[in-house]
Amino acid sequence: MKKYILGIDQGTTSTRAILFSKDKKVILKVQKEVKCFFPKEGYVEQDAIEIYLSVLNVINEIITRTNISIDEIEALGITNQRETTVIWDKTSGMPLYNVIVWQSNESLPYCEKWEKYKDLIHKKTGLILNPYFSASKIAYILDNIKDGHLKANNGELLFGTIDSWLIYKLTNGKVHATDITNASRTMLFNINTLTYDEELLDLFNIPKNILPQVYECNHYFGDAIINGKSIKITGVCGDQQSSLFGQLCFNKGSSKVTYGTGCFMLTNIGDIPIYSKNGLLTTIAWKINDSIKYAFEGSVFMGGAIIQWLRDELKLLNEAKESEDYANCVSDDLGVYIVPAFSGLGAPYWDNDCKGAIFGLTRGTTKAHLIRASLNSIAYQVKDIIDVMEKECRKNIKILKVDGGATNNNYLMKFQSDILNKTIILPECVETTALGAIFIAGLGSGYFKNLEEIKKLEVQDKIFKPTMDETTRNKLINNWNKAIKATRLYK
Ligand code: ADP
């Protein structure tokens, strides 16, 4: 009797597994850390074998702790850190270079070389030319392994993002495939034709034969072999898209924000791609049962990280969660604004050169005001992106679904709701990324018949409704805008 669906969330710092039962409950979550190496300033690498072993490890831990048999698992869903690049030998199945992680900038010189193609790249892929995406990482690895181009052209090498690597290893090298959301982050995939783009492959000198076959998210990818038994892989999706799905943002205009170290915002923009003039990415949200959805994506570099900075550098906090009490112990912001442009400002400003700033200090400013201003800065940055998303997709975002570590902060969530003048919903199961992969795998295996069935599973934990009056809101936003303007003047 098949009773369970297993979800794997392979993230940058850890691999998680969630066992989901057919009576629609999360049975168990387990997690295993994975290491990052920093061989030089700005370089971030990982070990592909360690990543694969961490996946086997969490699956085995789930099985041991719950005492279930592999035969009882109907389907496996995989979601993963996106863009992160692996190249391996087709014959031995062994990686030929360290994994280059999405955050790594070692392939920056390639992007500088490709600067003249940036408009073409945006039009074809929906992405902004950046070492973040896989294309320049592939070019870099091919140049840095012995006979890289020769072997690639001879069909001796395979490339994959983490999903492909895991599918390949779990199927004992039988399947070299990826899903369309991960493909859309390689900067090689044309989001209009839904195929790898020959012109870009030519410009970047990347041979097509190393690329994985692209399928829709709920395709039957193959059988994962675990301890000699098999589980069908029927769901694959990149992590941010998976969390959009796990948050049930199925309709045009529905949005989610993940408040982690940075904040990631995705809005479902429907079945036709829209191109942003303000630096938002256009990406494939998912393709399921032949139906495609696109999304706008924007990110804030310093989200929860500003709270880490208060804790670790300024020593104003022992733990991130104390920030809520401090923020609540003062009655207003006392005119203090922090613009956390520690590594420049992302969308919609795209100002790499500006630095962080604090405004409005007086003799009455206390530690609590600084902490409150830091939390507020997260909400203002998210608001700036939501404003652009609404304008560019010509749709009013009424409700915002949220997840991630900083959503534990009730002050932040209430302030976010006030400053946006929107309702915010926090789901009961905050593991929305793994949940997305589980739902997609369930659609692939036939356990879920359609999206409506999945929608019925929604359990909301907290709802934040705006209560701030318009005059106050406008005044605060106006002050924030002045702070941003002043920050950008100081260079
Ligand atoms: P990631 O997946 O990026 O590692 P998480 O979703 O685990 O991030 O969230 C961790 C981030 O959230 C940290 O930057 C931390 O400072 C912040 N954070 C966690 N709890 C709180 C809280 N109660 N209030 C404010 N920030 C918090």
From TrEMBL:
GO BP annotations listed: glycerol catabolic process; glycerol-3-phosphate metabolic process
Superkingdom per UniProt: Bacteria
InterPro entries: ATPase_NBD (IPR043129), Carb_kinase_FGGY (IPR000577), FGGY_C (IPR018485), FGGY_N (IPR018484), Glycerol_kin (IPR005999)
Pathway where this protein functions: Polyol metabolism; glycerol degradation via glycerol kinase pathway; sn-glycerol 3-phosphate from glycerol: step 1/1
Keywords: ATP-binding, Glycerol metabolism, Kinase, Nucleotide-binding, Transferase
GO cellular component terms, semicolon-separated: cytosol
A GO term for molecular function: ATP binding
Catalytic activity: glycerol + ATP = sn-glycerol 3-phosphate + ADP + H(+)
Pfam families per record: FGGY_C (PF02782), FGGY_N (PF00370)
CDD domains linked to this entry: FGGY_EcGK_like
Coiled coil segments of this chain: none
Carbohydrate kinase FGGY C-terminal domain residues: 257-442
Domain Carbohydrate kinase FGGY N-terminal: 4-246
EC number: 2.7.1.30
Record family assignment: Belongs to the FGGY kinase family.
Biological function: Key enzyme in the regulation of glycerol uptake and metabolism. Catalyzes the phosphorylation of glycerol to yield sn-glycerol 3-phosphate.
Subunit structure comment from the entry: Homotetramer and homodimer (in equilibrium).
Name by which UniProt lists this protein: glycerol kinase
Organism (species): Candidatus Onthovivens merdipullorum
Gene coding for it: glpK
